[in-house]
């Protein structure tokens, strides 16, 4: 049997066989015979029976240089496990073939060395724990984790579902599920009965993944409890999802008719570029309205974490669409090679561009921007979202001079009051001390980043700039920057007012428990701070307070506030490469399409 449950020191094993990837977990002291039997069960190879030989197969693990190495003895398995520990790898990859090489050192029949290369085609993964065979799943309605009882959040494949018993769990919870798979228990009982039938003939039960039961609709109440622990429902879980799709399809027929494609837009100019994406200014041909279009190559979305990032950004864009100080989403669509986010076009440029011109801002200007940013952050926090990437580049100014936060790829969703996370991420100059210390953290990291940004606006430099660092290469490293963030006492410029110095000290407190905005009163402490005393928060949230600066714009296509290194680029998308597209698992992007119903209704008024 595959490993039943997992502990923190268990080893994750990725098994590649017959065009399918399955994940299981083994103990560090596993024997080669036990591993072989697990592979036999997982891949469905026949065992020895009376008068027959067991099916022959070959196991090969991939070493740190990407070369396949056979596992035929305990010594070879121990070597694989030893290198796994030395390299601190996240998993061991084992390729299984349904035959043995004709001679030592020869490839197996059907073995293609291209499968060992990075960037080879990705298949859907199956995760085997305690008899369950979990698959990443996209849910069309509210779903709850059968292990922790919390709601399964997010878009795309936000949870795992057992393809046999229909149990639903979070991705993070699947390894600790203790309840055995009901379908597997039924198979075992059926197998025991079969062995006594037909004049005592022994019958080998099908492997779990090949069992006909794995493809049947579940008629038990198991999935009902998993879907919503507060009440039981009857009927097929899959059938209910299909019914919901049919209903939503009927109710949203008009919306489905309005799904967008690249041909609906005129590409005008490049306005930004990042490591993953290009941002274009585009015109919706039907309405002549200007939008920004974020273009992401699917080939760059290479693992589960990247897919999670895309799903999170889409969900936060949707959540932010109706907030005055957050960039909202118009629509999403895809081609075989790319993903497209059509978002609000914010014409005033970003604060980094303006700070490079202004050097530093008057206190009343910085106070206005910090207050609008605070409202945006508080809105995200109330929705259970940690922003995690506040910086000058991500603060845009609209045509009136109001703030708009953008770029939600670093966001963490589903965070409730008191919850924490531990991912090391962010822009180095804005990373909070608790992240650098390796501590779990919550919303506190956003208020630290606001402190850094406010310091930059008021002082015209980072609080972590080191005098003479440019002449000393050792002080230009990321590690040195992190050491400064953790240990250096932040010096407030004497030119700043007492109130400004106080708010900076509050936000830039290295202890998150004492930081401004992180106490029991949370955001109310920021509202009540003397630095913000002149702010009418209700009027500000309604955009009834005049911004201190209004960008000069000649038209809705004016790009004077965007860096010429982007706007001078030629506007084109590179032709698709069929070989690259063939390696993309398109099912990973099911359900990506979206149209904002509010913006659609506004367009109807044009």
Automatic annotation (TrEMBL):
Q: Where is the AGC-kinase C-terminal domain?
A: 533-604
- Enzyme Commission code: 2.7.11.13
Q: Where is the composition biased (Low complexity)?
A: 185-194, 201-212
Tell me where in this chain the PB1 domain is found: 10-99
Catalysed transformations (reactions): L-seryl-[protein] + ATP = O-phospho-L-seryl-[protein] + ADP + H(+); L-threonyl-[protein] + ATP = O-phospho-L-threonyl-[protein] + ADP + H(+)
**Catalytic site:** 389 (proton acceptor)
Phorbol-ester/DAG-type domain mapped to chain residues: 131-181
List UniProt keywords, sorted A-Z. ATP-binding, Kinase, Metal-binding, Nucleotide-binding, Phosphoprotein, Serine/threonine-protein kinase, Transferase, Zinc, Zinc-finger
State the Gene Ontology terms under molecular function. Answer: ATP binding; diacylglycerol-dependent serine/threonine kinase activity; zinc ion binding
Per UniProt, residues of the Protein kinase domain are 265-532
| Gene Ontology biological process terms in this record | establishment or maintenance of cell polarity; innate immune response
- PROSITE patterns, per this entry? AGC_KINASE_CTER (PS51285), PB1 (PS51745), PROTEIN_KINASE_ATP (PS00107), PROTEIN_KINASE_DOM (PS50011), PROTEIN_KINASE_ST (PS00108), ZF_DAG_PE_1 (PS00479), ZF_DAG_PE_2 (PS50081)
> Binding positions for ATP?
271-279, 294, 298
Region of interest (Disordered), residue spans? 184-240
Family per record: Belongs to the protein kinase superfamily. AGC Ser/Thr protein kinase family. PKC subfamily.
List the protein's name: Protein kinase C
Q: Which organism is it from?
A: Cephus cinctus (Wheat stem sawfly)
Q: What is the lineage of its organism?
A: Eukaryota, Metazoa, Ecdysozoa, Arthropoda, Hexapoda
């Amino acid at each position: 049997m595959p490993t039943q449950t997992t502990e923190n020191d268990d080893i994750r094993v990725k098994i590649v066989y017959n065009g399918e990837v399955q994940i299981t977990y083994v103990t560090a002291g596993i024997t080669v015979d036990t591993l072989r039997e697990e592979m036999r069960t997982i891949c469905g190879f026949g065992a020895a029976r009376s008068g027959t030989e067991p099916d022959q197969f070959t196991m090969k693990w991939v070493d740190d240089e990407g070369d396949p190495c056979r596992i035929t003895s305990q010594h070879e398995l121990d070597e694989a496990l030893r290198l796994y520990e030395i390299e601190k790898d996240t998993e061991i990859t084992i390729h299984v073939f349904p035959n043995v090489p004709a001679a030592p050192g020869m490839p197996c029949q059907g073995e293609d060395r291209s499968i060992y290369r990075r960037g080879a085609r990705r298949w859907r993964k199956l995760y085997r724990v305690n008899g369950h065979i979990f698959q990443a799943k996209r849910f069309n309605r509210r779903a709850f984790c059968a292990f922790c009882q919390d709601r399964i959040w997010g878009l795309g494949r936000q949870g795992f579902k057992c393809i046999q018993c229909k149990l639903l769990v979070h991705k993070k919870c699947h390894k600790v599920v203790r309840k055995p798979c009901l379908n597997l228990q039924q198979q075992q009982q059926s197998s025991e009965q079969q062995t006594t039938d037909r004049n005592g003939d022994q019958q080998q039960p099908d492997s779990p993944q090949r069992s006909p039961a794995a493809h049947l609709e579940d008629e038990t109440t198991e999935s009902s409890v998993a879907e919503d622990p507060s009440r039981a429902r009857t009927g097929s879980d899959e059938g209910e999802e299909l019914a919901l799709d049919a209903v939503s399809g009927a109710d949203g027929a008009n919306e489905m008719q309005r799904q967008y494609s690249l041909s609906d837009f005129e590409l005008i100019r490049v306005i930004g570029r990042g490591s993953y994406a290009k941002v274009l200014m585009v015109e919706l041909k039907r309405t002549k309205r200007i939008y920004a279009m974020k273009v992401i190559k699917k080939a760059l979305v290479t693992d589960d974490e990247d897919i999670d990032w895309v799903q999170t950004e889409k969900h936060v864009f949707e959540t932010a669409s109706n907030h005055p100080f957050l960039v909202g989403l118009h629509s999403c669509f895809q081609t075989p090679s790319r993903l497209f986010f059509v978002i609000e076009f914010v014409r005033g440029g970003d604060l980094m561009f303006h700070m490079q011109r202004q050097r530093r801002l008057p206190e009343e200007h910085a106070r206005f921007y910090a207050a609008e940013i605070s409202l945006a952050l508080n809105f995200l926090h109330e929705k259970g979202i940690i922003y995690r990437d506040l910086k000058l580049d991500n603060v845009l100014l609209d045509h009136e001079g109001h703030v708009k936060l953008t770029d939600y790829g670093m966001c963490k969703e589903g965070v409730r009051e008191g919850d924490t996370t531990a991912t090391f991420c962010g822009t180095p100059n804005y990373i909070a001390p608790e992240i650098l210390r390796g501590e779990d953290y919550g919303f506190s990291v956003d208020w630290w980043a606001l402190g850094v940004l406010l310091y930059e606006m008021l002082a015209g430099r980072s609080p972590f700039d080191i005098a003479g660092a440019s002449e000393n290469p050792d002080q230009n490293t990321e590690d040195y920057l992190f050491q400064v963030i953790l240990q250096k006492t932040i010096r407030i410029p004497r030119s700043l007012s007492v109130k400004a110095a106080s708010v900076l000290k509050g936000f830039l407190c290295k202890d998150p428990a004492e930081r401004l905005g992180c106490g029991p009163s949370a955001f109310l402490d920021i509202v009540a701070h003397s630095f913000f005393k002149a702010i009418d928060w209700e009027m500000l949230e309604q955009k009834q307070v005049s911004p201190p600066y209004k960008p000069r714009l000649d038209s809705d296509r004016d790009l004077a506030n965007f860096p010429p290194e982007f706007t001078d680029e030629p506007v084109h998308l590179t032709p698709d490469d069929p070989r690259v597209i063939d390696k993309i698992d398109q099912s990973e992007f099911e359900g990506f399409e979206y149209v904002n119903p509010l913006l659609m209704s506004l367009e109807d008024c044009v």
